Amino acid sequence: MSDLRMPSSDGAADSRWRSSTLLRRIAASPRALLTVLCTTLALLGTASWGAVTLLDYRDTLERSEREARQAAVLFDSHARGVLDSSVNLLERIAGRMDGRGIGSWAERSLAEAMAVERFGRMTLMSADGSVQFGPSVAFAEPETADGLSLLVRPLPPGEEHAIQPAAGHMAGQPSILLARRIHGVTGALDGALLVAVPLSALTPVLNAFADDTQRLAGLYRPDGLRLAGEGAASLGILPRLGPGAERVEAEWTFDGERSVLGLKRMTRLPVLSAVAIPRAVVLAPWYTRMERGLAVIVAGVAALAGLSLLGVASLRRETAARHALTEANAQLELANAQLEQRVEERTAALSSANLKLSRALEEKERANQAKGRFLSAANHDLRQPFQALRLFHHILMERLSDPRDRSIAEKMGEALDAGEKLLHALLEVATLDAGVVRPQLADVPVSAVLDDLVAEFRGMAADKGLVLRAMPARMVIRTDRMLLTRMLGDLVRNAIRFTDAGRVTIGCRHRGRWLRIEVWDTGAGIPAEQLENIFEDFVQLGNPERDRRQGLGLGLAKVRRKAALLGHAVEVRSLPGRGSVFAVNVPVVGTERLQTAVTMQDTAQAEAGDRLILVVEDDPVQRDAVRLLLESWGHRVIEAVDGEAALALFAGSAGGLTDPPNPDMIVSDFRLPGRFTGVQTVTKVGERLGRAVPGLILTGDTAPERIRDAVATGCRLLHKPVTPDDLRDAIAAILSERPAGRSAEGGEQSLEDQSVA
């Protein structure tokens, strides 16, 4: 037994001895140790690199398969979105006709006919291949060029009613042809209905999923024939897939090239969505990573050396930057100190300028107030004699018979007209500034406003040889018709006045919810630096001598005030020598409709006759003029110089002792001596008589506070000077109303009620 164990024990000891001897030699020799270490590291590195490369190879192929599958599924969903509308239309129409024959095509409903008309790519073929309806069809496959093969090709059992796809042309346009057979009543084949899906409709989808080098995408039949897309015309017999199934072939060869092929079959059509990625393209990044891996060590050493150099350079740059930053901070502090000093100086200068501006604004406000007081006083003081002159002139004209005397009186009337125009313009400005005018907003047809303007200014334009034209418009706007008409009238009057030749045009431009009403002229134009000044009071261009025939310089000032009152924007553009255009923007509420005209009754004529009128006026000249005028119209007149005298006429009415006069109305001045104004006198007389007495207030006071006080009652208000016709119309209108019929809304009069020219 001992002889048998000895060889084994000696062999193991010998092996351990040889191993220990080798290790001692390697440890004793650094070169050998380095050789062993480098060899071991090389072997370990090679093995590790091989394992990593193999795993990377498998991961690359798996990723490409997932990408091909996902791309095929996504491509299928987009392609179905393009084809579904055609499939639905084909199934709906073919389903109705199948079993009834192609003759039932004419029985389609209106909705179906409209759908076919809208689709516009449908052909009905008979069993012999002739086209019964729609454009001509050409199939890409030679054996189906005449369509007969598509009709007679045998189909698997249960798929006689399935849709058959094919590639071809309809009406000369490349298309995917979707065909479904139509059977007659006996079940025999009677023809086929084809719907064409233009390849152009699929182009955006194909472009999104395919490119010539990286990936190919297309629609194929199960036999591998291409229906749409670029690349191979045939993929060969494709794997059989059920509706909606998907599959990936890792090594599918076509056109001599291996590719990763993703397939997805449509649920309603025997059409496969295919996305192919060449394996060379898939593995190209893997080869690139291998090449880069081999260069990693060299690049690493170079990178370490470069990083060391960059570190030294970075330290040097950091030191230089720190020094530059210190200097910059010092300069910045100096600049901040200088800036603070400049800000303080500018702030002091700005404060001084603001103080001067504030003082200038105060001076301007005081000047405006002084101007308003001057205009108010001048208006009041001038209206009294103008009123008397107007009334006496009217009475004189009625009594003169000699032509020479009447001619002189007419000249006097023209002079009165010129003075009254100035007073009326000042009154209108003062009334607008007083804030007592309340716009009566309503839905107004633009055509009515334009007709009024053309009717009013046609004669004025013809006198100057100008063409006045209004472009038709059928819009309805929200505005105060009277105020807007007067605004546009001022613009048209100015356009005619300052245009020597050519035309004046009124037009409208509809812009969203606004309508621009524009007045164009071919006059001399306005310099650009004067476009803002022309809206100021009493500003006239080219009239230094203040010729009254060229206006007073208040037209555009009134336009600006009325526009602000209505909330309408006013714009102006002008080219010197070519003309100007003024525009007013008004809100649009709709389109004009025809309306029935309403005939208004003339109340003045209905109320003409003998009435008792109380005249309260402290100026004897004015009082006599009004009395004579009223008596010339057939009225009876009683007079009083002030409110107390007027009340004294009715002193007995309270106790019932006497029979006081019973006036039908009162005509009174606003300013009266004594305790009562004209408005208060009308109220007191009504209280004394126990009933409301209508009142007509005549005043020459245009101060804003006086106007607000006057219009706060139900009395009508006329500003002096008043023409006899205006006075007669106002009296007739008042007498036509019931004595107790004063409106509670009299406090908000429009410019029409105040008789402002």
Automatic annotation (TrEMBL):
<dbReference type="InterPro" id="IPR003594">
    <property type="entry name" value="HATPase_dom"/>
</dbReference>
<keyword id="KW-0418">Kinase</keyword>
<feature type="modified residue" description="4-aspartylphosphate">
    <location>
        <position position="669"/>
    </location>
</feature>
<dbReference type="Pfam" id="PF00512">
    <property type="entry name" value="HisKA"/>
</dbReference>
<keyword id="KW-0472">Membrane</keyword>
<keyword id="KW-0614">Plasmid</keyword>
<keyword id="KW-0175">Coiled coil</keyword>
<dbReference type="Pfam" id="PF00072">
    <property type="entry name" value="Response_reg"/>
</dbReference>
<keyword id="KW-0812">Transmembrane</keyword>
<feature type="domain" description="Response regulatory">
    <location>
        <begin position="612"/>
        <end position="735"/>
    </location>
</feature>
<feature type="transmembrane region" description="Helical">
    <location>
        <begin position="32"/>
        <end position="55"/>
    </location>
</feature>
<feature type="domain" description="Histidine kinase">
    <location>
        <begin position="377"/>
        <end position="590"/>
    </location>
</feature>
<dbReference type="GO" id="GO:0005886">
    <property type="term" value="C:plasma membrane"/>
</dbReference>
<dbReference type="InterPro" id="IPR036890">
    <property type="entry name" value="HATPase_C_sf"/>
</dbReference>
<keyword id="KW-0808">Transferase</keyword>
<keyword id="KW-1133">Transmembrane helix</keyword>
<dbReference type="InterPro" id="IPR036097">
    <property type="entry name" value="HisK_dim/P_sf"/>
</dbReference>
<keyword id="KW-0597">Phosphoprotein</keyword>
<feature type="transmembrane region" description="Helical">
    <location>
        <begin position="294"/>
        <end position="315"/>
    </location>
</feature>
<dbReference type="InterPro" id="IPR004358">
    <property type="entry name" value="Sig_transdc_His_kin-like_C"/>
</dbReference>
<dbReference type="GO" id="GO:0009927">
    <property type="term" value="F:histidine phosphotransfer kinase activity"/>
</dbReference>
<dbReference type="Pfam" id="PF02518">
    <property type="entry name" value="HATPase_c"/>
</dbReference>
<dbReference type="InterPro" id="IPR003661">
    <property type="entry name" value="HisK_dim/P_dom"/>
</dbReference>
<protein>
    <recommendedName>
        <fullName>histidine kinase</fullName>
        <ecNumber>2.7.13.3</ecNumber>
    </recommendedName>
</protein>
<feature type="coiled-coil region">
    <location>
        <begin position="322"/>
        <end position="370"/>
    </location>
</feature>
<dbReference type="InterPro" id="IPR005467">
    <property type="entry name" value="His_kinase_dom"/>
</dbReference>
<feature type="region of interest" description="Disordered">
    <location>
        <begin position="738"/>
        <end position="757"/>
    </location>
</feature>
<dbReference type="GO" id="GO:0000155">
    <property type="term" value="F:phosphorelay sensor kinase activity"/>
</dbReference>
<dbReference type="InterPro" id="IPR001789">
    <property type="entry name" value="Sig_transdc_resp-reg_receiver"/>
</dbReference>
<dbReference type="InterPro" id="IPR011006">
    <property type="entry name" value="CheY-like_superfamily"/>
</dbReference>
